[in-house]
C-alpha cells in the first residue's frame, strides 16, 4: 500500500493529464492551482506551488517536470 507521500506525485500527474490539451502541456503553476482547488496539500500541509509540483513530479520520474514552465 502506497503512503500518502507516495500518492501525491501520482495525484499531481493525474491532474496534469486531466488539464492537458492536444499538443500542449499545462504549466506547473496551472497544476498547482488545480491541486489547490481540489484541496490537495503538500506533505507539510501547505498549498501547492509550481516549484513543489516540479519536485513532486521529479520524484515520480516524470519528464513533464523538466520542460513545463511557469508563467
Structural notes for this entry:
It is a single chain. The protein is mostly helical and 71 residues long. The protein has helices at residues 4-19, 28-37, 50-59, 64-67. The longest helix is centred in the first third of the chain and has 16 residues, at 4-19. The protein is globular, with a radius of gyration of 11 Å.
Keywords:
mainly alpha; globular; 4 helices; 71 residues
| Inertia-based shape | globular
Mean pLDDT score? 84
Put simply, the count of helices is 4
What is the N-to-C order of secondary-structure elements (H for helix, E for strand)? HHHH
- Proportion of helical residues: 55-70%
Q: Which range does the strand content fall in? A: under 5%
Structural class: mainly alpha
Q: How would you characterize the largest beta sheet?
A: none
The low-confidence runs, each spanning 5 or more residues with pLDDT under 50, are: 63-71
N- to C-terminal separation? 36 Å
**How many strand segments?**
0
Which radius of gyration do the C-alpha atoms yield?
A: 11 Å
Helices and strands, with pairings:
Elements: H1 4-19, H2 28-37, H3 50-59, H4 64-67
